[in-house]
Amino acid sequence: MSQWEHLVEQHAILSVVAGSRAFGLETAASDTDRRGVYVAPTAAFWRMTKPPAHVEGPLPEQFSWEAERFCELALKGNPNLLEVLHSPLVERCTPLGTELRELAPAFLSRRVHQTFGRYAQSQLARAQARRERDGEPRWKPVMHMLRLLISGAALLETGVLQTGVGEHRDRLLAVRRGELPWEEVGAWCDRLGDRLDRAAAGSPLPESPDAERVEDWLVSVRRRAL
């Protein structure tokens, strides 16, 4: 055990299952990806060696963020962190974790247009490079790239982040299995990108997240963790 894993074991306020299982896109071979948030004791920040901003473990495929770092990244519209707040598969949730999940709308803004879009573009670029090098891409990341565009567009259209993929599930799983031609996947990606752009123009989401509300919560957490 690393010297910091106890922060997750003793001070986690939220732990969820993320990734394919949270989206209903798992297969028999899928890992169980766990993501969470812990609150380091306030007094630990008084020492010269500060608590880490994140910790891997102690379980396999487990990754957790300290509350302040989590809030910082979620306010920027990071898709991975926003999805932690909306995962339907919650394994641990303390009263502070409940407060954080109830705070989820404060993190949402039209910034997700850029963050979801940029992440999808980077995944597509990597997939294209691998296809040119090896003859075909890694299909699992391609599936998640499409899933992210679907999720981002729906979020901008409705103001609500949904983890389920609904009617798109079978087609996304077909992409994961490599059953769709690359040209068809590319055309679908283009259509979803256009949908994301259109949704941003008329989104009910605010231009910026409610950083003051999030910071007030974080300050209250620090006081209670003293």
Low-pLDDT parts are none
User: Average pLDDT across residues?
Assistant: 93
Distance between the termini: 25 Å
User: If classified by CATH, what would the architecture of the largest domain be?
Assistant: 2-Layer Sandwich
The main β sheet shows up as:
5 strands, mixed
What does this structure look like?
This protein is an alpha+beta fold. It folds into 2 domains: about 120 residues, 2-Layer Sandwich (Beta Polymerase, domain 2); about 90 residues, no CATH class. Helices cover about 55% and strands about 10% of the residues. A 5-stranded mixed sheet has the order 3-4-2-1-5. A hairpin with a 5-residue loop joins strand 3 and strand 4. Helix 8 runs parallel beside helix 10. The radius of gyration is 19 Å and the shape is globular. The model has no long low-confidence stretch (mean pLDDT about 95). It holds the Pfam family RlaP. This is Nucleotidyltransferase.
